[in-house]
Write a structure and sequence with these properties.
Helix content: 25-40%
Largest sheet: 5 strands, mixed
Radius of gyration: 36 Å
Number of strands: 18
Length: 479
């Protein structure tokens, strides 16, 4: 009738004894680890943390067609902050003290830290081009700045100052928006990429491949051992341009001289311009100058907002006459007398005028119902000319007559000049590899009707003979 027989009681007693012995052993082992050897293991844990860090690869140099270095690298010092290593208490006090040492905005740094908390494995670059005094201070007070890392970086060095600034472009830290689209191509947060010009167009080749290294740090993020290389960084490729840097210098000096000369002659509006020199054998760009210009070095190291404002701020750019605008590619201007060869070729191809036919180059001609005056730039010229002579003399009224001849041919004839102009590339981008081009406008009668139809409905009746000059004197667009 007993539920616990003597045999079962013995077994339960033996099992209980074994359990007590096991728990006693575990207790003694934990006591040994935490009490007897606690300090030893804590010190080992604090001094045996490995961090995998990237070793920045130097960007490839940029040279001109003759191998002269235009852009290279110089060594610099950067301060990075690992957000994951910042203490929870006193975090913003540390940020404030670090900002004071590096002379950066504490509010901006605190904002970056808050944004970087979502990605604690990516450090924040607090400042580049750090001075030696600032570096030495941080190294001497490492214990006061947990999570702060002193790193060697490569900074772009523009050998010729402002020369070819619009072509070369600049480098900057990748933005969150750019990272969303470039992450699949191997880009990561904190990478420095090309932002404009050659630096952006050929960033894949120039940036190289970062290396990897093991870094032993303590629990406060302080380095306690030497960096051990795991994968060597591979520098970027050197890039050779079609540009001739000496010719580029001559073009920029000539452009500035022309502006100064215009000011001396009271042509106050001549505050900018562009020069492009092209090798006719292969289309290579030998020089591409735009004025006013800027120093690409303003993007290197510690960016000064005041120096950067004329390039990125609309109001400041307007006051400085838009130095960041590449007038050779993005400036939209009337073609002026460069349109005359197009007119001449179109006229000969359409048999409007022959190569040896003569037309009068008069001081002034009148067209339209209101007899609007179209004048020649040289009022002293009044004689017949062939096409070659008219091009040599740049006779305006000669080409007004040719343009009017197209108009007199009716609807089909009035668009033939634009069709020939399009074959020359007017109104279309050239496809230059650095980007930033504007297509321009090749106005046609259809375009004019769409753009000014309400005005013409009120001012023009079918059958009226009216010419409209759009953009400049040589481009005659007719209904």
């Amino acid at each position: 009738p007993y539920r616990l027989t003597p045999g079962l009681a013995l077994r339960v007693g033996v099992l209980g004894a074994v359990a007590l012995i096991v728990f006693a052993v575990l207790f003694l082992r934990l006591w040994s680890l935490q009490v007897l050897s606690g300090d030893e293991y804590l010190n080992a844990a604090q001094n045996n943390q490995l961090r995998l860090v990237r070793v920045e690869a130097p960007r490839g140099p940029i040279v001109d067609r003759h191998g002269r270095t235009v852009v290279s690298n110089v060594a610099g010092i950067a301060v990075r902050l690992w957000v994951g290593d910042l203490p929870k208490e006193g975090r913003y006090d540390l940020i404030r003290r670090l900002a004071e040492v590096l002379d950066v905005s504490p509010q901006a740094l605190a904002r970056e830290v808050d944004e970087g908390r979502a990605d604690p494995l990516t450090p924040i670059t607090v400042k580049t081009s750090v001075g030696e005094a600032q570096r030495d201070y941080l190294l001497e007070h490492q214990s006061e700045f947990p999570g702060v890392e002193i790193a060697s970086v490569f900074l772009r060095d523009y050998e010729y100052n402002t020369l070819a600034a619009h072509i070369l472009g600049h480098v900057g830290e990748i933005s969150p928006e750019e990272l969303k689209t470039l992450r699949r191509e191997g880009y990561r947060g904190g990478d420095r990429i090309g932002k404009a010009g050659i630096e952006a167009a050929y960033d894949t080749y120039l940036r190289g491949k970062d290396g990897l290294a093991h870094l032993r740090v303590d629990s406060l993020g302080n380095q306690v051992g030497l960096r051990e290389a795991r994968q060597v960084a591979r520098p970027g490729y050197a890039l050779r341009l079609t540009l001739d840097i000496r010719l580029q210098r001559a073009a920029e000096r000539a452009l500035q001289h022309g502006i100064d000369l215009a000011h001396q002659n009271d042509n106050w509006a001549a505050n900018g311009g562009a020069i492009v020199a092209i090798d006719p054998r292969d289309g290579g760009i030998l020089a591409l100058a735009s004025a006013p210009t800027f120093k690409p070095s303003i993007y290197v190291g510690n960016v000064d907002p005041e120096k950067l404002a004329p390039v990125v701020d609309e109001d400041a750019a307007r006051r400085a006459n838009s130095p960041g605008l590449n007038r050779a590619l993005a400036g939209l201007y009337p073609p002026g007398s460069t349109w005359k060869p197009v007119t001449a070729l179109a006229a000969m191809q359409e048999h409007v005028v022959g190569a040896y036919d003569s037309l009068q180059c008069s001081p002034v001609d009148y067209y339209g119902l209101d007899r609007q005056a179209f004048r020649n730039w040289n009022p002293s010229t009044d004689r017949p000319m062939t096409v070659a002579e008219a091009l040599a003399e740049s006779c305006d009224t000669y080409f007004y007559k040719v343009g009017y001849s197209f108009y007199q041919r009716g609807g089909d004839g009035r668009v033939r000049m634009q069709q020939w102009a399009r074959r020359f590339g007017f109104g279309a981008p050239t496809g230059l590899d650095i980007g930033g081009e504007e297509e321009g406008l090749l106005p046609t009668p259809d375009w004019r009707w769409k753009s000014f139809d309400s005005d013409w409905d009120r001012a023009w009746n079918p059958g009226d003979s009216i010419q409209l000059a759009i953009g400049q004197k040589d481009l005659l667009v007719t209904p």
